[in-house]
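User: Batch of two.

Assistant: Item 1 of 2:
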Amino acid sequence: MPGSSPPPVDRYSRQERVAGFGAAGQARLRDAQVMVVGCGALGTHAAEALARAGIGELRLVDRDIVEWSNLQRQVLFTEADAAAGTPKAIAAAARLHEINRDCRVHAHVAQCGPAFLAGLPARPDVVLDGTDNFATRYLLNDWCAQARVPWIYAGAVGAEAAAMVVRPGGPCLRCLWPDPPIGSDVGNCETAGILAPAIAMVAAFQVAETLKLLVDPAAVTTGVFTADVWRSYAVLPMRGAADPACATCGLRQFPALAEAPAASVALCGRDAVQVDPGPRTTVDLGELAQRLRGLVDDLQRTAHLLRFVVDGVRISVFAGGRALLFGVRDPLRARALYDRWIGG
């Protein structure tokens, strides 16, 4: 029976034989907590590698559910997850438990906002960026600078990928880009596509740098790692100190922490909108299912959410009141549908 016998003592032997790592390095991994924000392509690659490496505790944060188009590149999910619309954090945590039962995995089906970060029960040792938007990246940048937690930015689109280790004291993401890049300038996987090797390349950088941060911080790469799996790879140098004019690590103002999260947000590169009514809202999914029965199509209740189709829009509602609406781009229309069918 799985889990009934102790793990073999040589599970991490190949890793421990690496010069500079050893049993002491493995012990540091066992005592570490890493938070992965976003369980898409980047997040699933990184989380799996870290679980296999023996990280003691993983915290997975994601607001989304598994869809069929995810299966091409998001490695922890199955067709059953897509068919059921399982929340990504839940599906990923279940798979990671099968991979390494000694890794304590916490799944958070949530929007990563200031309130969520403020409510974390413990400060992680490292935070990994697996997100698909710069608003969340700048939030992580500011929160990690304030909390003095290292984090690793990463992104991939088309054949290209980039990543950077951000350590307390800078330089940080705002030093590189004082303001978030315009979405049309950086593209997304819907408009430019995505090659799985680009994801694997940048996720490998994230995992390697995480191991360095935990085992040998002096070995951490400085500068911006870039890769074009069709052409070339490089590490671009950055200044050795924080930009004194940077709002985050120079002036320590942390503007993203003061910004109120938008109630309705279009999801990156998709005909979908997230509606989040805020922390004061609760929805009884059982009562909602009873109220909607006979009024909507394809009504399904799972352990984690309620799904239905109405007015050509597929809606997934979570217990906290947050909802994902697929088949709509306009946040105002999405909010109107939410208010009509779920409640204001």
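Item 2 of 2:
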Amino acid sequence: MTATLALTFDNLGEAAELEMGALPAEAPLGGHRTATEVVPALLERLGEREIAATFFVEGMNAELYPELLREIDARGHEVAYHAWRHEQWDELSAAGQAENLARGVDAFARIGIEIAGLRPPGGRLGPGGVGVLRDAGLSYCSPAGTGPGIEDDVALLPFEWRHLDASCVLPPLAGAREQMTGSPDPVEPATFVASLRAEIDRLAEDGGFLAIVLHPFMLDWLGAENLDALLDSVAAAGGVGVTRCRDVADSVLAQPDRFAGGTVLDATSWA
């Protein structure tokens, strides 16, 4: 595969905090800082560098922040699915996954956005496998793993935990930190960015697929200087195609003989 990079952002608004019990059920909704300040500023940074990204957002955001999602879409980025309220995907039954997907696809359709892909919260597919995605009309999934592939007419565009910002601090992902630095200790933002820039250089030389995973709620942790350095590296990556996940999926699905069975899934989860 020619060198292909997908810059992706997971989570928006209150969804994950509600799911994890970090917000009371009666808390007012619709004014979360990631939606009112962080992502709008991020869109400006991406626009300045002409980078097209993929935003995996929870379905409830179609009701809470429809105008922001329309703006993301209108600027040429992709809006993709990250469960309805950031439910741990592999803990849902196959029927529960199907219901979750149907609710989300319908909510996004009502605001004029067609969903092509899912990144399962927690990184694992669970009981429904790719069948529930195919039946819901999605073309791809981005689970934890390595190597782009195809399964049952669904493209798999995996991410590796060492390419995800939260791996720098979450206790269950000490193994990812050891891959980055050789130590399970927490990783500093500048070290994380340096490791990603090295991965971009490797990608340009060796080819293949790289998904970088950032979270809007962690951009304060990353810092403006580190974010700008990373975005500059993405924008300047010679010989690397930077594109949306749905476009990568279209390319993979157009070459079934090449990509069938090409993904190795990772059973590790952040939870």
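The mean pLDDT is 97.
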